[in-house]
Design goal:
With 66 residues, the protein is mainly α. The protein contains three helices and no strands. Helix 1 packs antiparallel against helix 2 and helix 2 runs antiparallel to helix 3. The longest helix has 21 residues. The chain starts with a helix and ends with a helix.
Length: 66
């Protein structure tokens, strides 16, 4: 794997972890950690998209970040 693949994969892991913790009741969607983890995960995925472009993925990650 190259660095953009690693960063993108970590972004996916962060987003999935955040989503799972929310649904397990371990994280509150109205608190800062939830928003920060979603933002970090999405930005990591966007970083990987700079190197391997996919418009649909870019659009969903921008929406997720916002």
């Amino acid at each position: 794997m190259i660095i953009d693949d690693i960063v993108g994969t970590l972004g996916v892991i962060i987003n999935l972890y955040t989503y799972a913790m929310l649904h397990l009741g371990k994280m509150d969607a109205h608190r800062l950690p939830y928003s920060l983890l979603n933002l970090i995960g999405s930005l990591a995925i966007i970083y990987s998209l700079v190197y391997q472009w996919n418009f649909a993925s870019f659009v969903i990650e921008i929406a997720w970040s916002l």
